[in-house]
Each structure stands twice: as structure tokens, then as C-alpha cells.
Specification:
Chains: A alpha/beta, B alpha+beta, C alpha+beta
Strand order of the largest sheet of chain A: 9-10-11-12-15-16-18-19
Shape of chain A: globular
CATH class of the largest domain in chain A: Alpha Beta
Largest sheet of chain A: 8 strands, parallel, barrel
CATH class of chain B: Alpha Beta
CATH topology of the largest domain in chain A: TIM Barrel
Oligomer: heterotrimer
CATH architecture of the largest domain in chain A: Alpha-Beta Barrel
Distance between the termini of chain B: 32 Å
Number of helices of chain A: 14
Structural class of chain A: alpha/beta
Distance between the termini of chain A: 56 Å
Radius of gyration of chain A: 23 Å
Strand content of chain B: 25-35%
Number of domains of chain B: 1
Order of helices and strands of chain B: EEHEEHEEHHEEHEEEEHHHHHEEEEHEEH
Number of strands of chain A: 21
Largest sheet of chain B: 7 strands, antiparallel
CATH superfamily of the largest domain in chain A: Aldolase class I
Structural class of chain B: alpha+beta
Number of domains of chain A: 2
Strand order of the largest sheet of chain B: 8-3-10-1-16-15-17
Helix content of chain A: 25-40%
Number of helices of chain B: 12
CATH topology of chain B: Glutamine Phosphoribosylpyrophosphate, subunit 1, domain 1
Radius of gyration of chain B: 20 Å
CATH architecture of chain B: 4-Layer Sandwich
Shape of chain B: globular
CATH superfamily of chain B: Aminohydrolase, N-terminal nucleophile (Ntn) domain
Chain lengths: ~475, ~400, ~150
């Protein structure tokens, strides 16, 4: 957008190209630059907003599907902001996390309904081991972001940060670059509809495998990596020709119903000798509860649900903005349905989709989640300014691009430090909130709906979320 | 009389507990336990008190003794219909009481002695105990104004709104003799006390009295609901009784393991334990929703023994003592010394580690197999007298 | 002894190192005054070299065997005892520019302000860390012990 005009010896800028990435603002040593919303306005109209009108112009000109990046930006209500937390007063002492043990450790995986003990021997022991679990030092993980959608440096930063923090990151559907195999024990690999990069070693190095049925930003359609972003390295990792668009099919073509899913889950478990948990990721849609119940009964050890605020590298705008439901409702109804059927212990629930801060995470755990995936928040920590132009492959911060000019801009050392700082800060905040409620272990918050009260919600919404209104 | 119906308002409970077990089976009068709990009156505010005694119905020890309270006659009739349909009732009568200052507007208090029809059980393919629980849950949740106080054999719970010693006099406990007695005095801060909300909470022959607040109540309750238990008495202590029933009776876990599930060590301690690490880790992973958070000191009594347990940070007082064949556990040492002035030893149990007393001769009980290891640990605890915990 | 090293995989060619270097060696030390008022503008001791998307910033290596010091005929260049850096006494420099000719890295520049002298990186001796290392936005310049 900026250009040096030699004749006039000055820098000129082409304002209509500005996407609001703030790169120039951040780098200017005198803070001389700033970014404003374009002043050019249409006459104000309740129905025909600027945005609606401009989209029609674009489509009239190109005849194409409007693409966009990141998550749903429409002003739907955010239910996290309608939930309030409790604190202990008098009858139950608050606990100070700086002086008392405060435990956030979480294990994800299938758990038996009860423990069978071998009582005959001198030392009590288990009759058989419990199924494989993923150990997290804090209930936060890095969400699935594929190598291709984001740069190698970004992937490396996520992997290293996950290792330092004792949590996991997800490869997304882009396969796993061989240089990152060494972080395998903190890696969850994804098997998505395009099966990009899925081969024996991929499954061997991972700590867990996730079957991706859908994602919150674009439920019902597959992943989309524009050809500009498919370089040599991507082509090798994903096992596709260079320069071609990588369009994952909408369904997984070997999963046309729940029994097919069961076959794939067990095929993966057999291939990895039942030593790794298998997770299934779905988007939050209307009958999520029934689907989740089916998935658990099909053998999944972990269910990941992605709400409609979930981010993406590229998606048709109309799907991103209109398909899917808020994660708050999906989580509440899935958790309750699994409990009603008595199978809640058979799978851990991980939720994703637009979590902005530790309070959102805390409320999600209180509603019933075991852990939370963060995607957009991690990218913002690394420098993303939410300009939503990821699909162009021209991410100015070196995150959502493969262009070597741009990928240099993301220094993994700096990115790792920022990610670690973010997660540590949130973990500490979660501990403070737990302590304030007089709880010293995250197990006592998980599913404890009495820790929440609703404010500004209708009766039906309160009912679905399973929380009381503030004041009761 | 105050009855709370409708939505669940969490009741906070406090504040004094006391109990003892005569391990040789000797039965003593309820007078003893009344004296112990009366001494700790400062810890209650007169809004609730209760007792449970074991061995109090020796002539009818094979029959289930149901203690019930009814708000009105309609509740009584509806309940009796259910009881007569579900069980064979041999005897029903009012629970003997006497007018006592401080006990106002008592509900209708009845007791029923009955047994289960074998044929019915065979058809339904469930165990006798599960059938009794089902019946109790049905009465509590579907009959308006009726609540089951206790449902065990040769034991009974007596509770009311009032100071504990007044409650004891009201129920004429001095006329009963039992080998285990537990008692509770309440200091609720939330709702006005109601008869059903006093402690102890029972299920079959488990009885629990509790001093503290269960901050994990929301999840303990939902976890239990998955197994068919209904929490209807609107007091967080209820979940304790049901958790013990689930872990001990249904899942056949040793008592030490059940206590570890409710008050587990920290992950740091587990990571550093040799030998038992996998077991401790598995307990915490599988029974995470049974972890009881928040300060508590509880006494769990059952027909074969008495257990005292503190939360993992020991935020409520609990003192234990032994003399000859009797184990005493109470909130304060003074409560013990009132009825046992010269105990052989007195100590303060550690956070998360249970204190246990067992009826002699009950060796084959499946949840006491780790008894020998526990009594070793008991021996290693400090033996010098401990000053009263406030 | 500490020296400045560049990690070219992280150099984005923004040339902020050049800007901060010249401001640090100016008289006003204020970036706006330097660029608007100081004439002639002070020069940066750093050179950013770029080809395609590869770039890196280059400054005096403070060599163990300094050709410039040997070539200096007025003795203006000398080695500082403590840091081992090659420093310059501008009063003694006569502007013969022999140092520029012999430097194998080409990191010495011509400076024609009031007096004709040569100019090169002085490892920011008067600061705790060199300004270029401190201000690189991508941490591409690092200070390492050798």
C-alpha cells in the first residue's frame, strides 16, 4: 500500500488498499501513523448497510464467492458476557492461590465408570490400567491451525510453547512438517477429509489423533487453502501438487454415517495399538447433543466442539457468518445429554470458538467442558491484528502466509515467549477465580453449574444453559 | 414448621459434630451423646440438630426401619400407599416424642418396620438395597411434604429444628441404647432451618453429619444424578451420604480408597509417591467429580463402623480419642472429655486421612480390607493431648 | 568480549537499525529533530544489504586482525582495552580514507560534515547494549560472547 515516489522524494500511500493490519503503525519509530475507518460513507440505512452494499458490488463485478478469514464478526450475542461467577463470603473461606496449592491439572480421555481394584494382594493395585489419557498442566490447548493456513514459524512457535507449558497443540489438517516431529509428545494430529499428510509416521509421533468432521467457521464444508499458499514445503508436507488449491471435500468420503465413524475410530486405534486417545471434532450445529452422544458411543475418547465464532484461514463469508450455533449452548446441551444418558465419563469435552480471555474459559469449564482450545487468541498473542485477510496469503505479520518476505516477520523465539506469557497469565487468573470461590482443584469446577448465574437472559436460555438467574 | 419446597437453595451447614463407637458392641444410652453435643452449643444457633444411633432396635434388627416426617395427613397417606405397595410393613407407629421447650410445631413423625418381598426383587432384577434406595428416592421426590429421615436396619436418624440437646430430649433418646451414636448441631446462614435440612443425612445404613460447606456441590450432585441418586433435601451434605453409598456399596471400593477419592492428595504429592502413584492418579482421574471441595469435617457411620474425615486442607476442626474399646471423634476435645474425661490417647487427624473405628468381629466386610494398614497409620500419629480446636 | 551478530532468517529489511544508529550518534539524539533539523544529516554506521527476500544488517566486525587499524596513518583508530572494540578518535582523523579502502567488509563510510573523516560502528561503548540490538523489532540482531 505504501510506495516511495523517487521523483517527489516522498512516500505515498494507496489508502483504498489498507486492510487495517497496523504493521506500519507498529514499526514507525516516531508513532507518526495511525489507521482510521474509511470516511467514505453511504447514506445511513437500517437494512442496506455499507457492508451489504459493497458485498453486492464485489459479487456483481467478479461473479465469485466472497471469501474471508478469521471467525464470525457479526454482532450475535455473546453468552459468556451474560454469565456471572460466584465468590465465597463468610461461610467458606476463599483460598489464596499464591499460598495454597491450587490445581489446574486436567486429564483428557476415556475414563472407566468405576475402578476395579485387586484386593487380594498386600499392596492395593488396579486390576487393569485406565485407558490412555492426555495430561495437561492447565486446561487450555492450542487449536487446530494447519500448516498452510499458517506459516512454518507459527507452527513451530505453537509446538515449542505447548512443550514448555505442558499442554498440546493441534496440527490442523495440514500434516506435520518433519522438523516438528520432535515435539510429537505435545502434538495432536488431525485426520481431516482431505487426509493431507496422513501417513504412518504422522500417526506414530503424535500424542493423540483427531478426526475432523467439521469446524465452527464453516460447518458442512471442507477446508480451503488457496493455491498461492501452496509452496514446495507445503506440497511435500500435505502430499499434494505445488500451486494447486487444496480443497478438502465437505464430508469425509469414508464416513457417511455414525457406524462408518466408528470404523475409522477403531481403525486408528488399531493402527496405534490403543495407546493414544482418539478425538472427534465437530462444529456446533442444531442437534449437537444427539450427534455428540452418537460419537461417544462410537468410541471417541475426546469430543472437540467448535462454536460458530471459530476462526479459519479461508472460508466463504456467507457460511462463516450464518452457519452454526454459539458454543455456550452446544456445550451446555451436550454435557447435560451425556449425563442424562450416563455416559459423560466416556469422553472428555473440549470446546473452541472465540474464547477471548480466562473468564470465558472459566465459564466454559463451569458449564461442563474439560478443556478449551484457543486459536484466534493464540494468533493475536503472536501478533495478529484481525484484518481478516488471511485468505490472500499476504499476512503482514508473517502468520497466515507462506511468502518468504513475510514469514521472516514472525520470529518464533518472540512468539513462543508471548504464547507462554499469555497462557501463564490466564492460568494464574483462573487460579484466582477458583480461589475466590473456595475451590482448590479444577475438578470441582468442571460441570458445577451452581458456580454460574445468568444475567439478561430469557427463561429458555437459562434453561438450556442450566444456570439460575442472578439473585436466586 | 418450616418446609422448603421448590427450587434448590443451597443450605450452608455448620457447626458442631460428635460421635463415638463402642467397638465391642456394648450399647449405651443416647444420654451420652446428648451431653457431648450439648457442650458444644456455642457452635449452633438453635436452627437444627440431629442424631443417628445404631443398634437401637435389637428386636427388629432384620427389618428396615424407616423414619419419616410428613407435613400433613395427605402426605402421610400417599406415602403409606407407596410403602405398602413396595414393601411388606410389619409395624408402623408414631416415633415417641415428648413436648420440649424449643421444639415448635413438629411435623407428623412416623416409623415403619418392613422388609422386601423376595418375589418382587426377582422380577425386577435389582438388589435389595437398590430397591430400598429407589423407594426412598421416589418418596422424597414425588410426594409433596414427605421426607425419609433414615432407611437402614437396626438404626435410625432423629432430627429437628432446635438446639441439639432439645432435639435429643424431644425424641427421648435417653430411652434408646446404641453401640454407635453420632450427633450434629447446626448453624445455617442461608435459609431458616427446616426439619428435613438438619443432619444427619442417611441412605440405607450410612449416616453422615457434616461441618462445613461443599463448594463442589454443583458437580457432585450432577455426578450422582448420573447414577440415579436424586438430591432433594436441599442441603449440600446430602451428596456425602450418596457418594459413600456409590463408592463403598456399589463400586466395592475399600474405605481408604473412597476417602482418597473424596479428599485426594495434591498432584505434586501423587507425582512423588512411590509405589502407589498409579493407583492414586487413577483414583483422582476416574473420580474427579466425586472430589469434595471446600472445608469439611464429617462423621460417616454405618452398621459396622464409624469414620471421621477432614478435607484436604483441614479447614474445619476434628479431634479423635480412644479409651479402652471406644473411639470418640468430635469437633472439639471438650466434647469428648465431657463424656470421657480420661481418654487413653487424643489426637488431631491429618487433612484427608480418615480415622476409623470398627465393630469387633466384622472382619469380612468388603470395604475394610485395608484395615491393618490404616491402624498402623493411626499408631504413628501423635499421642500427646491436643488443645481444643476452635 | 561481546560482538553483534545478525540472524538473517529474522531480518525483515525494515532498516530501523540504520535509523536508530544514526539518531544515537547525532547531536540532538531526538529522532524528529534529527530528521527535520540537523543538516547535514548524521550517517548510520550500519548498512542493510538486501536481495529479494534475503536481507541482513552489517556493521563493523571489530576484527581480531584489524586491517583498518594497521592502515591508519594518523593513529586515529585504536583498540579499546576493555571491550576489544576498534574505536576512533575523530580529532586525529585526517580523512585519507585508507581504512575504507582496506576494510574487507566495506563497513566504514565516508563522512563529510564540517570535517572530512571516516565513520564506523563503535559498538555503542557508551551504552549498556548497542542501540541496534535493542531496537530491532524482530530480535534479528543479537549480542553474543565470543
Amino acid at each position: 500500500m505504501h510506495r516511495y515516489d523517487k521523483e517527489n522524494d516522498e512516500v505515498v500511500s494507496q489508502e483504498e488498499a489498507c486492510v487495517g493490519c497496523h504493521r506500519c503503525v507498529t514499526l514507525c519509530p516516531t508513532n507518526a501513523l495511525t489507521v482510521h475507518k474509511n470516511q467514505l460513507q453511504f447514506k445511513s440505512h437500517g437494512n442496506w448497510t455499507d457492508w451489504a452494499i459493497r458485498n453486492i458490488y464485489k459479487q456483481a463485478e467478479t461473479g465469485g464467492v466472497l471469501l474471508t478469514g478469521m471467525g464470525n464478526d457479526r454482532p450475535y450475542p455473546i453468552y459468556w458476557d451474560h454469565l456471572l461467577l460466584n465468590a465465597s463470603q463468610v461461610t467458606n473461606p476463599s483460598i489464596d492461590p499464591l499460598r495454597e496449592p491450587m490445581e489446574l491439572r486436567t486429564y483428557l480421555g476415556r475414563k472407566p465408570e468405576r475402578l476395579e481394584l485387586d484386593l487380594g494382594r498386600e499392596v492395593l493395585s488396579l486390576k487393569e490400567n485406565i485407558p490412555p489419557q492426555l495430561k495437561l498442566e492447565t486446561p487450555i490447548l492450542f487449536s487446530a491451525m494447519s500448516y498452510g493456513a499458517i506459516s512454518y514459524n507459527a507452527c513451530e512457535a505453537l509446538a515449542r510453547a505447548a512443550e514448555i507449558l505442558g499442554i498440546y497443540y493441534n496440527t490442523g489438517e495440514g500434516g506435520l512438517h518433519p522438523n516438528l516431529y520432535k515435539y510429537g509428545k505435545n502434538t495432536i494430529v488431525q485426520v481431516a477429509s482431505g487426509r493431507f499428510g496422513v501417513h504412518k509416521e504422522y500417526l506414530d509421533v503424535a500424542a493423540a489423533i483427531e478426526i475432523k468432521i467439521g469446524q465452527g467457521a464453516k460447518p458442512g464444508i471442507g477446508g480451503h487453502l488457496p493455491g498461492e499458499k501452496v509452496t514446495d514445503e507445503i506440497s511435500k508436507t500435505r502430499m499434494i501438487p505445488k500451486g494447486t488449491d487444496a480443497l478438502s471435500p465437505a464430508p469425509q468420503h469414508d464416513i457417511y454415517s455414525i457406524e462408518d465413524l466408528r470404523m475409522l475410530i477403531f481403525a486408528l486405534k488399531e493402527a496405534t495399538r490403543y495407546r493414544k486417545p482418539v478425538s472427534v471434532k465437530i462444529a456446533a450445529v442444531h442437534n449437537s447433543a444427539a450427534i455428540a452422544s452418537g460419537i461417544v458411543r462410537a468410541g471417541a475418547d475426546i469430543i472437540a466442539i467448535d462454536g460458530f465464532r471459530g476462526g479459519t484461514g479461508a472460508a466463504p463469508m456467507v457460511i462463516r457468518d450464518n452457519v452454526g450455533i454459539p458454543i455456550e449452548f452446544a456445550l451446555a446441551s451436550i454435557d447435560q445429554r451425556l449425563r442424562d444418558e450416563g455416559i459423560r465419563h466416556q469422553a472428555s469435552i473440549v470446546v473452541a470458538g472465540g474464547f477471548r480471555n480466562s473468564a470465558d474459559i472459566f465459564k466454559a469449564i463451569a458449564l461442563g467442558a474439560d478443556a478449551v482450545y484457543i486459536g484466534t487468541a493464540a494468533l493475536i498473542a503472536m501478533g495478529c491484528h484481525m484484518c481478516q485477510k488471511c485468505y490472500t496469503g499476504k499476512c503482514n505479520w508473517g502468520i497466515a502466509t507462506q511468502d518468504p518476505y513475510l514469514t521472516k516477520r514472525l520470529n518464533p523465539d518472540i512468539a513462543v515467549e508471548r504464547l507462554v506469557n499469555l497462557i501463564n497469565a490466564w492460568s494464574h487468573e483462573i487460579k484466582e477465580m477458583l480461589g475466590g470461590m473456595g475451590i482448590n482443584a479444577i475438578e470441582s469446577l468442571r460441570g458445577n453449574r451452581l458456580a454460574l448465574r445468568g444475567i439478561g437472559l430469557t427463561d429458555t436460555e437459562l434453561n438450556i444453559l442450566g444456570v439460575l438467574p442472578a439473585g436466586r | 414448621m418450616n418446609l422448603k419446597q421448590g427450587w434448590f437453595e443451597k443450605d450452608i451447614s455448620g457447626c458442631s459434630i460428635s460421635g463415638f463407637i463402642c467397638e465391642d458392641g456394648k450399647r449405651v444410652s443416647g444420654e451420652t451423646i446428648i451431653r457431648s453435643i450439648a457442650l458444644m452449643n456455642e457452635r449452633s444457633n438453635g436452627l437444627g440438630g440431629g442424631f443417628a444411633g445404631y443398634g437401637i432396635y435389637p428386636e427388629m434388627k432384620e427389618l428396615y426401619a424407616f423414619h419419616l416426617m410428613f407435613e400433613d395427613n395427605q402426605a402421610k397417606e400417599e406415602t403409606e400407599k407407596i410403602l405398602n405397595e413396595s414393601l411388606i410393613i410389619d409395624l408402623q407407629e408414631k416415633i415417641p416424642t415428648q413436648r420440649t421447650k424449643g421444639i415448635h410445631h413438629p411435623p407428623i413423625l412416623m416409623r415403619y418396620f418392613g422388609k422386601v418381598d423376595e418375589g418382587r426383587l426377582f422380577d425386577m432384577e435389582i438388589s435389595e438395597e437398590d430397591y430400598i434406595i429407589q423407594t426412598v428416592m421416589k418418596i422424597n421426590s414425588s410426594v409433596k411434604g414427605a421426607y425419609v429421615f433414615s432407611s437402614g436396619k437396626n438404626m435410625g436418624a432423629f432430627k429437628a429444628v432446635g438446639y441439639p440437646h432439645e432435639v435429643g430430649r424431644f425424641y427421648r433418646l435417653e430411652e434408646y441404647e446404641g453401640y454407635i451414636w453420632i450427633a450434629h448441631g447446626r448453624f445455617p446462614t442461608n435459609t431458616p432451618g427446616w426439619w428435613g435440612g438438619a443432619h444427619p443425612f442417611t441412605l440405607l445404613d450410612f449416616a453422615v453429619v457434616h461441618n462445613g460447606e461443599i463448594s463442589s456441590y454443583g458437580i457432585n450432585k450432577r455426578y450422582l444424578e448420573m447414577f440415579g441418586y436424586k438430591c432433594t433435601l436441599m442441603t449440600d451434605t446430602e451428596v456425602m451420604a450418596y457418594l459413600f453409598d456409590l463408592l463403598l456399596r456399589r463400586h466395592h471400593l475399600p474405605i481408604e480408597i473412597a476417602c482418597m477419592a473424596l479428599a485426594p492428595p495434591t498432584w505434586r504429592e501423587i507425582d512423588h509417591r512411590d509405589g502407589e502413584m498409579e493407583l492414586a492418579k487413577a483414583i483422582r482421574i476416574v473420580y474427579g467429580s466425586a472430589l469434595v471441595n471446600g472445608p469439611f469435617a464429617i462423621l460417616l457411620a454405618h452398621s459396622k463402623g464409624l469414620i471421621g474425615l477432614n478435607d484436604r486442607l483441614k479447614l474445619r476442626p476434628l479431634v479423635a480419642a480412644r479409651k479402652d474399646n471406644t473411639l470418640y471423634i468430635a469437633s472439639e476435645e471438650s466434647g469428648i472429655r465431657e463424656i470421657c474425661p480420661f481418654p487413653d490417647k487424643v489426637w488431631a487427624p491429618k487433612a484427608g486421612e480418615p480415622v476409623m473405628g470398627w465393630l469387633k468381629g466384622e472382619e469380612r466386610c468388603e470395604f475394610e480390607l485395608s484395615r491393618t494398614r490404616i491402624s498402623d497409620r493411626e499408631k504413628s500419629q501423635s499421642v500427646h493431648p491436643v488443645s481444643s480446636m476452635c | 568480549m561481546k560482538r553483534i551478530f545478525i540472524r538473517e532468517e529474522f531480518c525483515i529489511g525494515c532498516r530501523l537499525c540504520e535509523i536508530h544508529c544514526l539518531v544515537a550518534h547525532s547531536s540532538s539524539k531526538d529522532i524528529i529533530k534529527v530528521f527535520k533539523k540537523e543538516k547535514p544529516r548524521p550517517i548510520s554506521r550500519i548498512i542493510v544489504e538486501q536481495k529479494g527476500y534475503n536481507s541482513f544488517s552489517l556493521q563493523c566486525r571489530h576484527c581480531d586482525k584489524p586491517y583498518c587499524l594497521e592502515a591508519c596513518m594518523s593513529g586515529a583508530l585504536y583498540r579499546d582495552e576493555k571491550s576489544g572494540a576498534i574505536l576512533q578518535d575523530k580529532e586525529k582523523c585526517v580523512g585519507c580514507w585508507m581504512c575504507i579502502m582496506v576494510c574487507p567488509y566495506g563497513v566504514i563510510k565516508r563522512e563529510i560534515n564540517n570535517k572530512k573523516v571516516s565513520s564506523k560502528c563503535d559498538l555503542c561503548i557508551d551504552r549498556e547494549i548497542p542501540i541496534c540490538v535493542e531496537r530491532c523489532p524482530n530480535q534479528a540482531l543479537i549480542l553474543k560472547e565470543v
